Q: What sequence folds into this?
């Protein structure tokens, strides 16, 4: 038994492609099912607004310079 993909026959390559295709379809289906069952009913009233503070300039020495 040779464990190289280069020396595998046509049927082996076909099996690998089919298994990869089925696995990809299963992962995509799971992702779509998980997304559609999620609850995205967050309203604008439930969000919080964060205001920016004073600007700070950071120098290359790691110290802050406030203008």
A:
């Amino acid at each position: 038994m040779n464990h190289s993909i280069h020396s595998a026959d046509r049927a082996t390559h076909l099996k690998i492609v089919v298994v990869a295709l089925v696995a990809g379809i299963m992962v995509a289906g799971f992702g779509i099912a998980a997304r559609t069952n999620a609850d995205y009913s967050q309203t604008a009233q439930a969000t919080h607004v964060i205001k920016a503070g004073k600007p700070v300039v950071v120098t290359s020495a790691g110290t802050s310079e406030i203008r």
The two ends are 73 Å apart (CA to CA). The helical segments are 10-36. The longest helix spans residues 10-36. The beta strands are 57-58, 64-65.
